[in-house]
């Protein structure tokens, strides 16, 4: 009989998919919201920006929350926040309501289900195969994008943005009873050892001061140049992925003069999610064998070049050069994560995972900035071209930043 740990992983996988549904929504409903309420793209981008900032800020503390209150309570509470925030958006009328619901509520909910959730499940339930489990749960976010994008894009085109929004809220809500009934905090709660262990070990008592340690580690890390180089380059990573492509690719492809159908643009974004999984696994394999700094430099440089060419590839229909861009961008999407984690571990030792949590917060801050500024630029210039070109230049700067980091072995 399979170990109960695999059931917990399956529930965690479905939970992350349910939470990831919202990630696909803003890019699909930007134009409908602008048409219905007269909101500028900058206003809509501001709500996405608040969401991403809060997502990044709460992520370093998510493990502490689960340690204090338990995985099951935090997960169900986070899903409830997402469901309420997205669902209440169906009846919103004012821009401040968009900022509160989609920005604050959903940002807090998705932040609690970020990397800390996957790491906590992996560490508490598995004594072996942790790499495999981490990869599976990391892939869940991309899988959510793949599952929901085509459905939501069809709903937006055929029935409007409100049914699509309600669908996302229901997806999050549907996972709540599953998580509450089947998720457990520790194997000992059901009388089992960790998968790969032989003896049942009692769950460790809640560790006081975990959140304080996160702040202490940050205060030490910010005194080093390496932290700022990692945080700065990863901020550009977030700006050129979640902030730019995930938020603005669909409206840019549908924009004048291209007018690519929303369903076609959304399908292309879903394909990015497929190759995202492949690229992440391959990058982890490469990170074990090559200098992480050089890998990152190559990733950022190639991403920057592709963004410079993207405005020329946008067209009313899908064509081979655009497909090449989509495949490449999918492979490169989160390929930056394994070498960035490796550099955090190499330079900060046991504090490396916590440092990466703060570096991830900078990733979300960069994404938030471009989610907002990209919309403002479209309002001002009437085109997204300047945003793509500027992001390409930033990626070139990120490639130089990671090369400046000195080599150092973990203590």
UniProtKB/TrEMBL annotation:
InterPro entries, alphabetized: MFS, MFS_dom, MFS_trans_sf, Proton-linked_MCT
Annotated compartments: Cell membrane
Gene3D superfamilies xrefs: MFS general substrate transporter like domains (1.20.1250.20)
Keyword tags: Membrane, Transmembrane, Transmembrane helix
Membrane topology classification: Multi-pass membrane protein
Pfam family, any one: MFS_1
Transmembrane segments: 44-65, 74-92, 98-120, 132-157, 163-183, 227-245, 265-286, 298-316, 322-343, 355-374, 386-405
Keyword check for 4Fe-4S: no
Domain named Major facilitator superfamily (MFS) profile: residues: 7-410
PANTHER family assigned to the protein according to its UniProt record, in alphabetical order: EG:103B4.3 PROTEIN-RELATED, MONOCARBOXYLATE TRANSPORTER
Stated name of the protein: MFS transporter
Lineage: Bacteria, Bacillati, Actinomycetota, Actinomycetes, Kitasatosporales
